[in-house]
Design a protein that fits this description.
Helix content: over 70%
Radius of gyration: 29 Å
Structural class: mainly alpha
Shape: flat
Number of strands: 0
Strand content: under 5%
Number of helices: 15
């Protein structure tokens, strides 16, 4: 073989080499494009969450300053005080500063986790939130697990046998309970099951989280006893939404060709529902689940107030009555941030459930 022939062979090998590895390269290119598209999708969702948090900061500062009432008068307890004392209170809490300066200081501190000092409790707002958060999670977390499981189960059953007696009863009851105000249902349960009505004795506490003076297992039982009525109230009002969304999403999948194919292969009806129909109908339900999960941090203000539950919702109502501006602003920011975070996580989860999302 001559030296002159060697370069041509090398060139031929270089020309033919990629052709042999072409299919593998073609497989890598779509994966790279998919990864790039997903990263752009993630970046867009995170940027949207950041903008939403900024909007929450602005809203929480200006919205609650429209509430009538003077925090300084509350702090003085209605006692007659001199103008110098009032001015001193305003200086202490920064109420004498121009509005724009109060706003910039509030945003700067909030971004570092400092939500200010409560007017009525004289402690950092974050301390009060941390103290009340576990109580809220016990109540709303328990209710969330129950009404989500109940709504998904009954929703799939109703959709799979739509038009039947069970479907009509389920959807009718869900619509009725979903339209009832939670505070009204809570008051009704207190009247009937706590105070007692006619032959029905009072079976449950009228409010609070514990009776006091109990420890260990007796304490757990006491808290569970106090949980019954507020949890029943939340489950009764909230499960209907999950049921209706799940039912509607599954009904949209009922006529799909892949379900007909699965039945034609001889799969049992129960397997067709569980393995094929329900997983493909979960996207709207997942959205609702994550939204409700964010709301577990926010608590349910009216229910916690009706049942005197010592959580974030009751704390928010108490702060509004003052008004305790730092506490109200801090709670509103935490509530909204939890919902934004859960919505963002749901958006990031979508492409894993359905690869068509985010392309």
């Amino acid at each position: 073989m001559t030296a002159e022939a060697t370069p041509s062979l090398v060139e031929d090998a270089a020309a033919t080499g990629p052709a042999k590895s072409g299919p593998a390269g073609a497989g890598r290119a779509p994966r790279a494009r998919t990864t790039t598209a997903y990263l752009r999708y993630v970046a867009g969702k995170l940027a949207g969450a950041a903008v939403s948090l900024l909007a929450v900061l602005v809203t929480s500062f200006f919205l609650f300053r429209l509430i009538p009432g003077d925090p300084v008068k509350f702090m003085t307890g209605g006692r007659p005080v001199s103008a110098e004392q009032i001015a001193a209170y305003r200086r202490e809490f920064g109420l004498d500063l121009p509005m724009w300066q109060q706003f910039t200081e509030y945003c700067g501190k909030a971004l570092t986790g400092d939500l200010g000092t409560s007017y009525q409790f004289h402690v950092p707002v974050m301390d009060k939130i941390t103290e009340a958060l576990p109580n809220t999670l016990v109540l709303t977390g328990t209710a969330f697990l129950l009404y989500t499981a109940l709504g998904v189960f009954l929703g799939t059953r109703s959709a799979w046998r739509h038009g039947g007696l069970g479907d009509r009863l389920n959807t009718g009851l869900a619509l009725t309970l979903y339209s009832i105000p939670s505070f009204w249902l809570g008051l009704l349960l207190i009247i009937v099951l706590s105070v007692g009505a006619g032959p029905i004795p009072g079976l449950f506490p009228t409010g609070g989280m514990e009776s006091g003076g109990k420890e260990g297992f007796a304490y757990v039982v006491d808290v569970a006893h106090h949980l019954v009525l507020p949890v029943v109230t939340l489950v009764a009002v909230e499960y209907g939404q999950t049921l209706l969304v799940t039912r509607s999403a599954l009904l949209d999948e009922m006529g799909s060709d892949y379900l007909t194919t699965a039945r034609a292969k001889g799969l049992r009806d129960d397997l067709v529902r569980r393995r094929h129909a329900v997983p493909n109908a979960l996207l709207p339900t997942v959205t609702l689940i994550f939204v409700n999960l964010g709301r577990t941090v926010a608590g349910v203000i009216l229910v916690e107030t009706v049942f005197s539950w010592p959580g974030l919702g009751g704390l928010f109502y108490q702060a509004l009555s003052v008004p305790d501006l730092p506490l109200v602003q801090g709670l509103f920011f935490v509530f909204a941030s939890a919902v934004i975070l859960m919505n963002t996580l749901a958006d990031l989860l979508y492409p894993l459930l359905d690869p068509r999302v985010g392309r």
